[in-house]
Structures are given as structure tokens and as C-alpha cells.
Amino acid sequence: FAELVLIIANIIYYIRILKKDKAEYKKDVGLFYMSVEQSEAVEASKALREYAKKNGINKDLAMKIALCLEEMVVSVEPARADHKVSAQIMIRFLEEEAIFTMLDDAKCIELNQDKEHGPIITDSYNLLKKLAEITEYQYVLNLNYSVFIFEHWKEAATA
Description:
Helix content is 40%, strand content 27%.
């Protein structure tokens, strides 16, 4: 129950940030939200690509984010053997960037941005760091919170 309250509080906080950002300077192109279990990663990826196609979002960007979604959802490890992890995925498409966020209650994945001063980074995470311009990870209150920012995704105008 406490996890659900935290997820709802984070979603409300994120929506408030979205409204503030929108009022300041960034135009939203779209918002994609989905709750995904490990077994649904491929279907969620397809749903994201369909959403992008329907909303005129760059195909290459959609593929990058879909790969990010699949890799992150598949790589979560349940905290207990009887626990099913449900990842909360939110992707905000703006005029010049896309922000992918994932919140889950799985085990801490101990991702470290600096190879020299921490645990070894997983191969999947290294791949995602190459695809995204900015990557952030936090483990707070037994929740993993990952953020990936993909920039400069607008396609050139076609005549």
C-alpha cells in the first residue's frame, strides 16, 4: 500500500512539474504513460512505436526509446521471489527532446555513472547511456527511479 501511495505522489508531482515546464517555455508534443510488467516489455515497446507513428514523432527517436523501455523493464529484478514488478513508464515528448522516466519497486540495480568508483555497470545500461544524451538514476525509499533524456529529435521538414 505504501508503494502505491508513493507512486501516486510521484505521478502527481511529475504532472505539476509538467504544467510548470509547459507554462515556462517547452511545448508538449505528447505524453505516453504505461504500467508494464517484465513479460509485457515487447508489447509495451510496440505500443510506444505505434503511439509515436500516430503522433508524427520521429521514427528513430521512437526506436531508441522503445529499446530503452524494453531493456529497462526486462532488466528489473524482483525484490522477493513472490513479487511481480510493475514498472511505471512515462515518456514526455517535447519540441526538442524526449524525457523517458521509469519508476519501479524492484531490487536496487546499483547503476553507477562512473566506472572507476563503483560497481560494474551492466551492458544494457551502457547501451542506454550511448543512446541517451543524459542518464540519471536514483534508488530512494526502495524505489528505482531512472531518467533518460533524448535530444534533437525533430525531423527536417519535408516538402
